[in-house]
Amino acid sequence: MKYLLVFAAGILISLSSSTLASERPKNDPARPEIGWEAFKSMIPYPEIAKRAGVQGYSNASVKLDTAGAVLSVSISGYGIFDKPIEEAVKKVQWLPELDNGKPRETTVIFEVQFQLKSLQDMPKKKILIIESDR
């Protein structure tokens, strides 16, 4: 009986994953299989950054192969946030980009903002962009 349950569970898992692939649009961007909100919840705020009151942004670039496997990860921004982002990227299963129904190698770029709740009510900083011709 135990083997029958394992076999039945295996069939259900394979059916659900094959229907997931067929439900994707022909042109669909790469993304975490669990969705962006669930992925975000996998990235912890580093304890040392919390204690120091450090907030910031990090930009991540994740190169994926045609199967959605991570080929490389590049993160820029506050170095203190690099490790939790990279660990989450490597833990999650990625869906590859679909181009006319065919998976293709691609790079996913996203930004992660680390913000302390206790500092959310503080006045927002003004960002000035000053441009000049050479």
Largest sheet: 3 strands, antiparallel
Q: Please count the helical segments.
A: 4
Number of DSSP E strands: 7
Assign the CATH architecture of one domain. 2-Layer Sandwich
Report the portion of residues in β strands.
Answer: 25-35%
Question: What is the end-to-end distance?
Answer: 76 Å
How do you describe this structure in short?
This protein has 134 residues and is an alpha+beta fold. The chain has helices at residues 2-23, 36-41, 47-52, 82-91, and strands at 31-32, 56-64, 70-77, 94-95, 97-99, 102-104, 106-114.
Descriptive overview:
There is one protein chain. This protein is 33% helix and 27% strand. It has 134 residues and is α+β, with helices and mostly antiparallel strands. The chain has a domain at 31-115: TolA/TonB C-terminal domain, CATH 3.30.2420.10. Strand 2 (56-64) and strand 3 (70-77) form a beta hairpin. It is elongated, with a radius of gyration of 20 Å.
Topology:
Layout: H1 2-23, E1 31-32, H2 36-41, H3 47-52, E2 56-64, E3 70-77, H4 82-91, E4 94-95, E5 97-99, E6 102-104, E7 106-114
Antiparallel strand pairs: 1-4, 2-3, 2-7, 5-6
